[in-house]
UniProtKB/TrEMBL annotation:
Disordered, as annotated region: 140-172
Entry GO terms, CC: cytosol
Pfam family, one: TIP41
Protein name per the record: Uncharacterized protein
Any one biological process term the GO annotation gives: TOR signaling
Organism for this UniProt entry: Cyclocybe aegerita
Family label: Belongs to the TIP41 family.
């Protein structure tokens, strides 16, 4: 029978953490961002935000001996949304009638004068983005490892997995083993109804 490893759980109104072996994992869930927070994030990203943006939510995994830390955040996820003209294989998504919608708007404004049409075309050109908020965000490293000159540094070296090395594969046997669940969290990052074209949401589970 599998022995439960030593661990320590911590909880507060807006976060849950677990300390297990050399890892410290924190999941923070907070209310939807307020207007000033949304304005600041919009200014940083340059695109309209989803209807429900949880800008202060995050998941962080920290390996304390090496100083390695990896996080999933709302700004990071939205920063990887495709901006500009959508192209083949760039990760963006466009609904089927998007081009017809744009043509109908341009045809409407063409009846109102050339100058207005030019201004409208400029607006569309400067505001193109993937409004389904499809993102290829894989998370990101949030701080540097300790160096060899650091007295508290360990000998652990982090590097990308080698797909040809069997020891780097996902341990499916361990993942399918019915171990007790010591820690679970679901962290929403954003959600949008896509103007009645379905919905788009991103959350992180651990």
């Amino acid at each position: 029978m599998f022995a439960v490893p030593p661990h320590k759980l911590q909880e507060s109104p807006n976060s849950r953490s677990i300390e297990i072996y050399d890892w410290f994992i924190t999941a923070s869930t907070n209310p939807i961002s307020n207007a000033p927070e949304c304005d600041a994030l919009h200014a940083d990203l340059g695109i309209p935000l989803p209807e429900m943006t949880f800008g202060n939510n995050y998941l962080t995994l920290e390996h304390r001996p090496s100083g390695f830390s990896y996080s999933f955040t709302t700004p990071g996820a939205l920063n990887d949304v495709k901006k500009g003209e959508l192209g083949e294989g760039d990760g963006g998504v466009k609904v089927g009638y998007a081009d017809k919608w744009l043509q109908s708007r341009q045809a409407l404004f063409s009846c109102l004068g050339t100058n207005l049409l030019s201004r409208t075309a400029l607006i569309f050109a400067t505001k193109l983005y993937d409004w389904t908020y499809t993102t290829i965000y894989p998370g990101h490293q949030t701080n540097d490892q300790k160096t060899d000159n650091d007295s508290s540094s360990s000998t652990i070296s982090w590097k990308p997995a080698d797909p040809e090395d069997p020891s780097n594969t996902i341990p499916m046997a361990e993942l399918t083993r019915p171990d007790p669940i010591l820690f679970y969290a679901e962290i929403p990052l954003f959600e949008d109804e896509l103007h009645d074209n379905g919905s788009s949401s991103l959350l992180v589970r651990i």
